Amino acid sequence: MKLFVVLALLAFTGCQANVLRSDEPKSQLELVNDAFRDYVAKARQTAQDTLHSIRESAFGQQVNDKITESVEVARQYAAVVQDQVTVIGQESYKKVSEQVERLSGRLQQDISEVRAQLEPYAEDLKEKVEQRLQEFQQSLAPLAESLHTEVAQRAKAVQQTVAPYVEALREKLDPYTGDIKSQLTDLWESLTKSD
Fold it and tell me: Which of 92, 122, 130, 193 could pair with 88 as two cysteines, CB 3.0-4.6 Å apart?
């Protein structure tokens, strides 16, 4: 009996909820959530654009050119060394190896200098993005809290408003549910006996 009432109530409220929901605009929480996601996406894009502009800037090009130049010099030097190794004896090969090591050390030093020059920019950018995200989150916290409180109050008000109607509906449907239950029981028994 109670099962039928619950099913009828669920079917009725489910149908009404779909009709009412389709006309409702987005809630404030959804709007805030959408705005937050947009802000984070824009912050990430700004960070990527800034890094891209650093790479594309004259300074970034100079760094890339210097690295490319150093690698090319090392490659050319290695090619020359490889050609001369067959001609030069053990002693000469040892001197060339030392020069290659020095060149490699210089190349590593150049790369370290470039990293050291770029690191403050990357760190500064990271700090700024994190600071902006924290400020945004802090500015949204009171709004989210008030929204949560308002939603809870409205839910409670709706529940208090609907409670008398649900009780009245249950009282009206109680006589019918007993009758339907007995009919379903009779139908079930007749079906199980016929098998």
Answer: 92
Other CB atoms within 10 Å distance of the CB of residue 93: 14
Q: How many CB atoms lie within 10 A of CB 137?
A: 13
The pLDDT tens digits of the residues spanning 120-172 come to 887 888 888 889 888 888 887 888 788 888 888 988 888 888 888 888 888 88
> What is the torsional sign of CA 96, 102, 103, 104?
positive
DSSP-derived secondary structure letter, 89:
-
HSE at residue 120, side-chain half, CA atoms within 13 A, is: 4
Helices 90-194 and 58-85, axial angle in degrees (round to 10): 120
Cα of 181 vs its chain's centroid, Å: 51
- Number of residues assigned to the chain: 195
* Cα separation, 115 vs 119, whole angstroms: 6
Whether 61 has a pLDDT exceeding 80, the answer reads no
Tokens of 179: 């009758």
